[in-house]
Amino acid sequence: MTSLVGGGLVWLWERGRRTGALNRKAAFFGVRPGETCLIVLGSKYNTPGTAAHRDVRAAVELAMLAGELGCRLTLESGDFRGGNGDRTEFCVGGPLGNANIRTGGHLAAYLPGMTIHPWDPSRRDSVAFEVGGRRYFFDKGNEEYAIAAKFTPEGSRRPVFLVCGQSSLGNQAAIHFLRREYAQVARTLASVDRYCVLIKVSGIATYEHHRAVLERDVSAAAFGSG
């Protein structure tokens, strides 16, 4: 009898621990188990209607995340219009070359302190991110950056989770990293309700998207509150 009671208590403790971890993960990404989430997936640079291979891989990562959290998914392209309403929106891809027009709208409306420099191969700051008075340069295939931001648009009941990399590899790396290391990132944030973090991807020639780290919390500067 003692063994049965002890075993039952351990099972309940493990179940509670797993449930707590899933709830914290759901809170970080802004989803609720059982709800429907929306993925807005960008196109290749200057190639409307054609998704980059790594963006598709990023969407697969999001589908796996939704499965872990018991959510359903719908998919739209980057020219999607309207509010996200009662659906958590995962918006993937940067706005340059009209790859994801919706990302450009989100940045302008909610992250005014975040600048993405235009693509220009003759300039050092081509595709560089600028936030908080610092520039983060794009070194394709070697070292790249991505931002991940969470905010709730006016008139919406659920948040937007925006992932914007300097390339599709950055998009994939950011989602891959956050899906596994969300707890580490959450501990650095003042709040998981609204934030913007910068993620660095390095050693790409050797590790591809697998070597990503949290570079900085840029929430105050990106949202224009500091």
Short description:
The chain is globular and about 50 Å long. It contains six helices and ten strands.
Descriptive overview:
The chain has 226 residues and is α/β, with parallel strands linked by helices. The protein has helices spanning 2-29, 53-69, 101-110, 168-186, 204-207, 219-222, and strands at residues 36-41, 72-77, 89-92, 115-116, 129-131, 134-136, 143-151, 160-165, 195-202, 212-217. A 7-stranded mixed beta sheet has the order 2-1-3-8-7-9-10, sandwiched between helices. A 3-stranded antiparallel beta sheet has the order 4-5-6, with no helix packed on it. The longest helix has 28 residues, at 2-29. The model is unreliable at 9-14 (pLDDT under 50).
